[in-house]
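Supplementary notes for students who missed Thursday's class. We covered one full example, reproduced here. Read the sequence, then the structure, then the short commentary at the end.
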Amino acid sequence: MVKSIDMAENYPALNSIANELESKHLTREAQVLRDYLAKHADSPAFRQLDAWLTKLAAHSPETIQHIKRVAVVAALNAPGFTQGMSDEARADLTARVIIAAAAHDIGKLEIDPKLLEKSSRVDPDQIKQLMSRMPDYPGKAQDVEFLNMINGGWIAFDKEDKPAAVHSLAECISIVRNDPTLSEPRIADADLKSSNLAHFNAIKERAEKAGVAWLPKEMEDNLLNRGFRGTLTEKEIAVMAKHDPIGKKMFLEAGLDKALGLPADIIQMNKDGRAAVAADPEMAKIHEWISLADKFEAMTGQRAYNRENGKEYTIAEAMRLLEKAGVDPAILQQFKDSGVAETYGKHYGIPQERGQLQPDKPQITHDSDSSDHKPCRAPHKLPFRPACHNR
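Structure (token representation):
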């Protein structure tokens, strides 16, 4: 008989994960998690994990949402990893894997939340002040518009190659997904991206020749990251990568390895974690179980660094990328055959292919400073064509 406990009081953060599972019709898996935690109601390790997850929810709301969705993918995929087990063994392993999945990003508590939630938007007033100091020249107004488009708005083009409207990047990604008249190769055109970068550099050169102080290096990096390279700089990516070893250390300090019967490397979603468990087939399988869920959610989730650099993928695109990411072919094939990805896509409104609109697709969340953003009128004819990136 499983002891009854108040999950909301004893394990509020882990209970919210159970609630997420229930909301996606994973009632059995939610109950398995609750039953397991009821058996360990006084576990110092699980209480510490719950406390960290509670702090992480305030530290980085996007990270905690990612964790919940990774738990959903892991739970959906449980049947494929627990075949042949007794009901008791299946429930036990599923619960432990969901808890380990919840722990996989705890190291991000030590990462600056500005980096975790970074969107790279430059204050529009900075651009306005910069250009106001520039002497008048033909095309100056268009250059202001160009910089603002890179910073906060992008152009979507119709099938006749005419500017349709100015949209936020999140809206633009949605348009690309749901409007098959938008040609993917044209939108992701590398030559177009190169010409836009050349135009950006021409504006900078003009400012320097006029003796006008250009944007500070950090702001210039933000504009370039936002428009041409992706949100995070190489240095910032290196900082982000530290969360794996930090998380492993926290996992050990809390005694979660002993509480779950899983090595701390199980939550390291990098090559070091994979290599560390490779010699143990059972642990290697569990690591792949969590890692697959993490990769899949990261590719399809609406996270800041995906929204801002256009790297939000359809289910089909994520599947193709998982093949390149080195996921075990047999496990990936089982994942494909199971229909887990399609079910997950329906739950969270992620199209299977570009041009498909999910009827239950949630409203895209915009940056806080553009929550009331509406498509603008079509811009004046410009000597360039800012691209709506989908890669």
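Commentary. Residues 153-192, 305-311, 355-391 have pLDDT under 50 and may be disordered. The beta strands are 154-157, 163-167. If anything here is unclear, bring it to office hours.
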